[in-house]
Structure formats: structure tokens, C-alpha cells
Amino acid sequence: MDLYRAHVLVCCGTGCTSSQSPRIISNFEEQLADNKISNEVKVVKTGCFGLCAEGPIVVVYPEGVMYFRVTPEDVSEIVSEHLVKGRFVTRLMTVSHEEKATHAQNVEESDFFKKQLRVALKNCGVINPELIEEYIAHDGYTALGTILTEKVAPLDVIDMIKKSGLRGRGGGGFPTGLKWEFAAKQQNDQKYVCCNADEGDPGAFMDRSILEGDPHAIVEAMAIAAYAIGATQGYVYVRAEYPIAVQRLQLAIDQAREYGLVGKNIFDSGFDFDIDIRLGAGAFVCGEETALMRSIEGKRGNPTPRPPFPAVKGLFGKPTILNNVETYANIPTIIRNGPEWFAGLGTEKSKGTKVFALGGKVNNVGLVEIPMGTTVREIVYDIGGGIPGGKAFKSVQTGGPSGGCIPASLLDVPIDYDNLIAAGSMMGSGGMIVMDEDTCMVDIAKFFLEFTVEESCGKCAPCRIGTTRMLEMLDKITSGNGTMEDIDNLERIAVSIKEGSLCALGQTAPNPILSTLKHFREEYIEHVTEKKCRCGVCKELTTYYIIPDLCKKCGLCAKRCPVDCISGVLGKEPYVIDSSKCIKCGACEQACKFKAIIRK
Amino acid sequence: MGATKTMTHDEMVQALDQVIQRYAANGRNALMQVLQEAQNIYGYLPLNVQRSIALGLGVSVAEVYGVVSFYSFFSLTPKGDYVVSICMGTACYVKGSQAILEKVESELGIKAGECSKDGKFSINACRCIGACGLAPVITINDDVYGRLSADEIPSILAKYKEA
Ligand SMILES: Cc1cc2nc3c(=O)[nH]c(=O)nc-3n(C[C@H](O)[C@H](O)[C@H](O)COP(=O)(O)O)c2cc1C
Ligand code: SF4
Ligand code: SF4
Ligand code: SF4
Ligand code: FES
Prior knowledge:
The radius of gyration of chain A is 26 Å and the shape is globular. Chain A has a five-stranded mixed sheet with strand order 7-8-6-5-9. A five-stranded mixed sheet of chain A has the order 11-10-14-12-13. In chain A, strands 2-1-3-4 form a four-stranded mixed sheet, covered by helices on one side. By secondary structure, chain A is of the alpha/beta class. Chain A contains 24 helices and 18 strands. Chain A folds into five domains: about 5-110, 3-Layer(aba) Sandwich (Glutaredoxin); about 130-340, 3-Layer(aba) Sandwich (Rossmann fold); about 355-435, Ubiquitin-like (UB roll) (Roll); about 440-530, de novo design (two linked rop proteins) (Up-down Bundle), CATH 1.20.1440; about 545-600, Alpha-Beta Plaits, CATH 3.30.70.20. By secondary structure, chain B is of the alpha+beta class. Chain B has two domains: about 10-70, Arc Repressor Mutant, subunit A; about 80-160, Glutaredoxin (3-Layer(aba) Sandwich), CATH 3.40.30. Chain B contains seven helices and four strands. Chain B has helices at about 10-25, 30-40, 45-55, 60-70, 90-95, 95-110, 155-160, and strands spanning about 80-85, 120-125, 140, 145. Chain B has a four-stranded mixed sheet with strand order 2-1-3-4, with helices on one face. Chain B is elongated, with a radius of gyration of 18 Å. At the A-B interface, helix 1, strand 10, strand 14 and helix 17 of A face helix 2, helix 4, helix 5, helix 6 and strand 4 of B. The complex binds flavin mononucleotide (FMN), iron/sulfur cluster (3 copies) and FE2/S2 (inorganic) cluster. FE2/S2 (inorganic) cluster binds next to helix 5 of chain B.
């Protein structure tokens, strides 16, 4: 093997790829060749480092220096300064919201990474996901190899997973070992293992990053699961919106097959296993396990009643287990390090780590993996770097359309499955959206409800009709026509939807409303009684106003207004908005350089 | 994915035939895969294409239509040459994707879900595309634009209007 004095890691996750990381790589290769150091420095294409908002990201080892927002044009400077002369390019070492380079030089020492613990993401941003050799060099396929060559009994494998305390990362938190045990106990000529990579929570990208950054971990874990329950065929159900993930996963499966790690008689053990990919087609309800299986069968993705549970009668009527991508990503490490190691991480009832896609009004947007028991405050302020623009924190949303909003008073709650439910939200699959003082909580509730109304499969009336009724009430409230009775009715209907719905989509659909009503009721009441949206988000309740004393009479706002409803005299008289004609597009507020325009 | 504009009608028919033959042995289990590939060929799924698929896989046209209408990814109407997708996922929403959508709609003179008369543009309000780090995000065919403000929309669209 060649020895290199330095490695340049370039993130090729979805975020960075869309901001030109492929060109950055080719520029590095050219520049290294021009400087005749191609044989000394190796360029590695990796998966996501996690700090997506600051991408494209380039890390140079051995120093571990991280460069942010690198453009293809910056490459020559990094090569000539850092790689040739050994001087860091400090200009690229600051994240955008910080004034100067306060970031520690070394990646692992920065605030963003210090409180994290990477188990599921351990290879993301470290190895080249397109090379099986790199996965193997990082202990890849040793867990599967050990089990098969040492002839560990399937039930002993299941026992290890049970002892680890691993619970499903797809939302529900069901103990993974138990699920496997149910399926293992079924007698049948054919069983299946499936992987849920549908990632339906709008605003989450953990599973995508794992598939893009470490696809072999999923292949290895599914093979282990198949061996444990006695299956020979696996399916990964991936969203069609994730082309890079699909491509890397397919490559991983093909490479594993070439190496004999997938296919017939793996490790000469007599164990056969193969994997196929199935693409989703844009229906959120297909993330639900029975709907997902109907979709793989080529049918409409309508959920079916349980029992029978999939472990008994699942895909094509055969015993089937379904696990989430992140759940699988933990499996090889649990086998390698032992269940006791995993059970030593986290809280009493929630073991291990959880990956969150941190987004919204927070400085460090990206992927974070923390030990269970970390507080929301630590994630938002220490890892996330706080709220941009000195704004006040309002809430954190977890669990997507099935979850809820956690208010500032609960910032110190340690995150685990049970605490989040007690806080009126849920773990969910890992979306974590930070909201600041400018986010209207009634509008957010409406946003999620619009989502569920659109995504309800329509099979049962409480879900189909109930959510539509609730949306109508929220529409009334946000347009200033709501009554206090509407607020009470929202709570009443919520209960009947929860009780009368067949699948968890309906059963959890009222959660965003119930949790915002619980923690931010005053905002609802303000919309109703004062006809006011304090955040200036609900258009019908908002008026744009120019503060005469602040107006510099520059006329820029009037130029931008699409309906010509701003008048004034350039340089002489302050400008005024005719609110009867204003369509509340907000263009004037954005245009004014003197912050003279406000929303009331 | 937009239509493969470079294919002639006959080539499309032929390509579809090949797809159906490849999957015919799997019958109805392969319906989703065949529909996905058919949409890649045609850009959408007109009734005659659904009919050929039903015949080829031995399922009823009603069942094919039932599946097509269930999944939002399948389209019964043609899309524009350029599909402008505005991410309305949570991360993008709290960062102002509503204003971006409105700007795109007013710039193109069509609403989300519609296609312009000349067939050049259509607008698609989509869910998280997994690039939340760049929120708010839009895509135009395979190009991704992130960290946007509504102001930048006209100049971005201009590139495609001229193309
Ligand atoms: C409407 C709905 C959508 C869901 N979407 C997802 C999803 O996108 N990804 C996922 O892993 N699980 C999703 N789930 C949960 C799955 O049904 C299932 O519980 C999970 O995949 C099991 O894997 P786990 O035990 O490893 O978490 C969804 C459930 C419902 C009801
Ligand atoms: S609860 Fe809603 S999504 Fe679930 S089966 Fe019923 S109608 Fe369909
Ligand atoms: S842009 Fe601002 S300062 Fe200029 S005229 Fe309008 S309100 Fe006054
Ligand atoms: S919000 Fe829009 S319509 Fe209203 S005054 Fe400002 S620019 Fe004109
Ligand atoms: S919410 Fe827009 S990319 Fe995720």
C-alpha cells in the first residue's frame, strides 16, 4: 500500500455535492499533479461530516484542519499554502456566524464535535463509501464474519441484540431484539428482512446520510439480521428522492456480492442471503410497516390492521422484520464491541446514541449524534452554537408530523424515548427543528396538519375527515376568524382521531396541535381574541408599516412593491404603505436597508 | 426526472416494451418498478402507457390506475422541460420557503402543480430532499440551489428561460 503524508477528505454528501464538491475534488487532483505531490497527498471522497450548513467541507489530515464553504477556486490556495508550505488557510477556517477563527484547529476538538459520540455515524465522513476495501479496513464485515465462521447460533445473536437494549430508531422505539425473536420463532420456508429507508419526516436526513456515507454497514447488518431470523432475502425500501443514496447502496451490494459477502454460501457457512432495492414513490404513509410491505408488493400503500404482525405474516404473507436504517447501522458495532458496551451508553431505558438532523433557526445546521440522555440545551447551544442573529429561542420540534414542540422551560430534559413523550413530543426518527421568536406556533401546527391531510391514505374516516376538520379550524384561527370554541373543538376532535385511526399516521396526527396548545396556548388565544400574530407570519393578521422617523426617504421599497402601494417623495417625504392594497409579500421589508419597515 | 426529450415516439414505445418484457415474469409484483421506469421514459404516465403495462403484467387497468393515483411521484400529466421543485420540508419552511414558492409562482405566472403553456416550466412543491443544511432549497431538474432568498429567484430562473 502507498503511504501518504497527508489526506484531503472532501464531503460528497447531498448537501455538499449540490454545492460543487465534485469540482473541488477534480481541482484538488489537478493542483496536486501540477505541484507534483499526487503521490504524497491522497484525496478521499467521503460521506457527510455533519456540519452541512458550512459546506462544502474539506478536512486535511494529519492536522485535522477543517475548511468551510470551500469553493473550487479556493483549492489552489489550500494546495499551495497548506499542502506545500504547511501554512493553514485561516480565512476558510471560520464558520460564517463567528467573527473570527474561534474554532479549534482540530476537528474533534471543536464545540460541534466535542459533545457528540459517533456510533451509527462512525464511518460517515471517514471512509470512502464507494470502496468496500475502506469499510473492511475499518473492521467492516468482521461482525458478520465472526458470527458465520464461529458458528454463533442465531438465537445467541438475538440474545446479544436483546442484551444491548437497542430500540428501533425509526420512531416507535420497539426493542429490536424482541422483534427479531418473534420472527425467528416462526416456522416457514421463506422469511424476509426489510430496511426502512423511506425517511418520511420532512426535514430529516439522518438515514440518507448513513446510506450515502456508510452503505456497507446496512448491507452487513441486514445479513446479520437475516441469519438471526432465518431469512435469505432482504429488501431496502428507499425514497426515490435520494438518488445518491440509492446509487451508493447499489454499488455496495454489488461489491459485497463480488467479495462473496452477499450471495450463496457466505463465508462457506452454507448461509445464503441477497438484497434488492425498491424505490418509494412519494407517499409518506409507506413508511408505516404494513403499508411499506404492500408497496414492495406493487400495491397501493394502504396500511392493514395488526395483528397479524409482520413478524408472523408480513411481506408476501411471510414472516418479515422491518428495521430503520439507523437501527441497522448500530448492529455491526454492537456485535463487535459486545452488548455490554452498548448498554453502558445512554439512560436506563434508552441505550446507545441517537442521530438528529438539527435544522431550522440554529447556527450549526447539520447531523449530530449524541448519547441518549444529552439535554436539548446541550444540542441547541453547545453543539448547535445557539440561535442566529441574537434572536430568542422559542421551541424545538421533534418527531416531525407525529411529534410535538418542546418549549424553553423543558430545555434541560435529558433526551430519551420516555422523556420526550412525557414532554408532549416523541423521539421520532430524528428530525430536530429549532424555532425562534419569529416562528408562529399556530402556523407551525397548521404546517404539519396540512402535511397529514395530504398524506392520509383515506382508508379510515377519523383520520381522513377529522384532520380535514382540524385544518379548517386552524385556517379560521390563522385568518382572524377563529373563536374560543374552535380551540376547544380542536382538542375534542384530537381525541377521537387518536382513538379511531387504524395506523399511527392518524393516531399521532393531532400531536403537533396538542403540544402547541399545551405549551403555547397564549398564541392561539391572541390569534382569536386580539386578531394578532405576534410573529407577523399569518398574513391576514399582519400589516406592514413604515416608521416615519426611521425612513430615509430612499424610495427603494416603493420600487420593489409589486402592487405599487407605497408612496412618498424621494428625499423629501417619508414613504407610506397603503395597507388596503398591500398583498403582504414582504418585498419592501427585505428591501429597506434602514429597518424602517416593520410587521404589526 | 424530466422526460427523455431526445427519444422519438417510436423509441419510447420500444423502450417501454423492453421494460415490460424484462419484468413480465414477475407479474403484478413488479408493477411499481415498471411504472417507475415507464415514467423515466415518458416523463409521465398517460393512459395508453398504463394500458400497455396492465396488459403486459396481466393486471387490470383499474388496478394500475389505482396504484398510479396513490403515489404522488407518478404523474398523469406532462411536466415542463424544467421542473422547479421548492422544498417545503420543515427545515426549509421555518427558513422561509413559503416566500420562495410565492416568488417562483409570480415569476413564472403559474402555480405549484402547474405547467407553463409553452411546456418549458412546471412547479412542484416537494418534501425534504435531504439537503436541510442548505435550507431553503430549490432544485431545477438536477441542479440544486441552497441558502436562498426570494431576491435571488429571478436571476436563477433567467438562466433557464434563456436556455
Ligand atoms: C405514517 C408513518 C410513517 C413512518 N415513516 C417511517 C420512516 O420514514 N422511516 C422509518 O424508519 N420508520 C417509519 N415509521 C415507523 C415504521 O412503521 C416502523 O416502526 C419502523 O421502520 C420499524 O423500525 P425500527 O424498529 O428499527 O424503528 C413510520 C410509521 C408511520 C405510522
Ligand atoms: S389512520 Fe389515516 S393513514 Fe392510517 S390507515 Fe387510516 S386513513 Fe390511512
Ligand atoms: S426603503 Fe426604507 S428608508 Fe427607503 S423609503 Fe422605504 S422605508 Fe424609507
Ligand atoms: S408587503 Fe409587498 S405589497 Fe405590501 S407594501 Fe410591502 S412590497 Fe408592497
Ligand atoms: S427541509 Fe428542505 S431539504 Fe430538508
